Amino acid sequence: MKTVNYVLGGLGGQGILFMTKIFATTALNKGYNILGAETHGMAQRGGSVVSHLRIGDTKSSLIRAGSADFLISMDESEAYRYLPYLKKGGKLFANALVDAFPDKRVAAFLEKMQIESRAMEASKTAMELGSPKSTNLAMIAFYSAFGQGPLSADDLRATVDTISPGSFKEKNLKIFDTCYGVGKKMI
Predict the structure, then answer these.
(1) Are 122 and 78 in contact (CB under 8 A)?
(2) Contact 62, 68 (CB under 8 A)
(3) How far apart are CA 19 and CA 167, in angstroms?
(4) Cβ contacts of residue 128 below 8 Å, gap of 6+?
(5) Average pLDDT of each block of 10 consecutive residues along the chain (187 residues)?
(6) Containing structural domain, residue 57
(7) Per the omega criterion (within 30 degrees of 0), is the bond before 150 cis?
(8) Among 53, 132, 151, 154, which one is most buried in terms of CB atoms within 10 A?
(9) Structural domains of the chain, count
(10) Residue 71: beta bridge partners?
């Protein structure tokens, strides 16, 4: 399998490492090799957090600039910060206002690099569903609706079902299903 590179970015406390765990566990369950790396920075104080996940046969855990297939960001400003990791033709998914993303100052770069960008107000949706700390699950589900990459929506949902603690399972699956539906409506 060709290596598929994911960069997951956000701020401390937004659940970037949990997102990475869901993607990595799903990949392992499908029999894929994985390598990953995380940088925490000032995570405890809301600082930048980035995780690299490589699915397939690779020898390095870090993703070079210009080689990520996917960037999934929990924060609009962090999406811009990690944009240089995306390769030409890469895919960007951001927790941002749909009508205001991407910023006009970035749109020309995205067009030049043929980067497809998608946004969802994941924080707002998670809050409306009574689980503001589940924005990370909302973004995973949103990403999965577009059917891109080696991990299907069914595979990711099954992992969420398996690793969610009993008391959170029903709410986590409701968030997943709702945000998957938001993405599907955009296709």
Answers:
(1) no
(2) no
(3) 19
(4) none
(5) 94 90 97 88 72 94 96 96 97 97 95 97 96 95 97 98 94 97 96
(6) 4-186
(7) no
(8) 53
(9) 1
(10) 7, 92
